Amino acid sequence: MSVPPLSLTVNGARVTVTPRAGLTLLAHLRNDLGLTGTKTGCATGACGACTVVMNGAAVQACQVPAAALQNADVQTIEELVKTPAGRAVAEALIAAGAAQCGYCLPGIVAAASAALARDGAATDLPAALSRNLCRCGTHARILGALERVKNASGAEA
């Protein structure tokens, strides 16, 4: 039996994907749409490397089943760094020396951008990043950089 394709918006463009058993949003982004900025980490939703913004909220793409994608609005790192908030977050991370290996940063930019867009200056950034791990140990620099973005932009982030 043929599975109907799913239609969603990714980075502002309407796309169609054909769901296959067991595939997640992460697999469709990387394999079907060629958006490799979203990283595969633990594949269990624990590390945050695959975090994207879906319908305005940060989600671990490895945990979003294809069935949940119909009419979803997804932003990946490729689009987020073009937005004022995403660009400010990325630039602050680089300026703070928080970009070591960089594997975690697309997910961190996505989680922070979603939190700042949602709450602005009221954002509890440690809580917003609680599902994002940095194996290089730069969490203090990451949080410092994001606090500077939050303080500089307030509710406009």
UniProtKB/TrEMBL annotation:
<dbReference type="InterPro" id="IPR006058">
    <property type="entry name" value="2Fe2S_fd_BS"/>
</dbReference>
<feature type="domain" description="2Fe-2S ferredoxin-type">
    <location>
        <begin position="4"/>
        <end position="80"/>
    </location>
</feature>
<dbReference type="InterPro" id="IPR002888">
    <property type="entry name" value="2Fe-2S-bd"/>
</dbReference>
<keyword id="KW-0479">Metal-binding</keyword>
<keyword id="KW-0411">Iron-sulfur</keyword>
<keyword id="KW-0001">2Fe-2S</keyword>
<keyword id="KW-0560">Oxidoreductase</keyword>
<keyword id="KW-0408">Iron</keyword>
<dbReference type="InterPro" id="IPR036010">
    <property type="entry name" value="2Fe-2S_ferredoxin-like_sf"/>
</dbReference>
<dbReference type="InterPro" id="IPR036884">
    <property type="entry name" value="2Fe-2S-bd_dom_sf"/>
</dbReference>
<dbReference type="InterPro" id="IPR012675">
    <property type="entry name" value="Beta-grasp_dom_sf"/>
</dbReference>
<dbReference type="InterPro" id="IPR001041">
    <property type="entry name" value="2Fe-2S_ferredoxin-type"/>
</dbReference>
<dbReference type="InterPro" id="IPR051452">
    <property type="entry name" value="Diverse_Oxidoreductases"/>
</dbReference>
<dbReference type="Pfam" id="PF01799">
    <property type="entry name" value="Fer2_2"/>
</dbReference>
<protein>
    <submittedName>
        <fullName>2Fe-2S iron-sulfur cluster-binding protein</fullName>
    </submittedName>
</protein>
<dbReference type="Pfam" id="PF00111">
    <property type="entry name" value="Fer2"/>
</dbReference>
